[in-house]
Write a structure and sequence with these properties.
- With 149 residues, the chain is α/β, with parallel strands linked by helices.
- The protein has one domain: 3-Layer(aba) Sandwich (Cytidine Deaminase, domain 2).
- It is 21% helix and 42% strand.
- The protein contains 3 helices and 7 strands.
- Strands 1-3-2-4-5-6-7 form a 7-stranded mixed β-barrel.
- Strand 5 and strand 6 form a beta hairpin.
- The longest helix is centred in the N-terminal third of the chain and has 14 residues.
């Protein structure tokens, strides 16, 4: 099993983002560097949820915003390690839609359940595989450290 490592400040920030946007899904990107057994995340970047049809159970990051996030990451010597979003009043498990809309192979997809406006479980899944046809989500261990990286 691969591991997602992130500082407590990042972990708390993405969970707080879910609480702030409740009852709608929040979303954002995780920046970091590949590690021997997964990813070492150093920052989370909030993104706007551009889904207007069903923001309570779907999210989408505008392509132009994603390009901006990726450019800023590169300027800092970082990569997009993955993405995060919330599931208002639903478990922190990926959905069929989450899987269908996940295309960044090798990246983490972090989901926080927000139950009644409060962050509950937070889980991470690695999008494994080599092509769109053989992609799959694999559970990741989430390790939260007290100190910044």
């Amino acid at each position: 099993m691969s591991t997602l490592r992130l500082p407590c400040t990042v972990y708390e920030a993405l969970r707080a983002h879910g609480e702030e946007t409740y009852p709608h899904e929040c979303c954002g990107a995780l920046l970091g560097q590949p590690a021997e057994d997964g990813w070492q995340v150093t920052a989370a970047v909030r993104a706007g949820n551009t889904r207007t049809d069903s923001a309570h159970n779907r999210y989408q990051i505008a392509p132009i915003e994603l390009v901006k996030i990726e450019r800023e990451a590169r300027q800092q010597g970082l990569e997009i390690a993955g993405f995060y979003h919330s599931h208002p009043d639903h478990p922190a498990q990926w959905s069929v839609t989450d899987f269908a809309e996940a295309h960044w192979l090798g990246c983490c997809y972090v989901i926080t359940e927000v139950a009644g406006g409060k962050a509950a479980a937070t889980n991470s899944f690695l999008l494994a595989g080599t092509t769109e046809e053989d992609k799959r989500f694999e559970p990741q261990a989430v390790v939260v450290s007290e100190s910044p990286v």
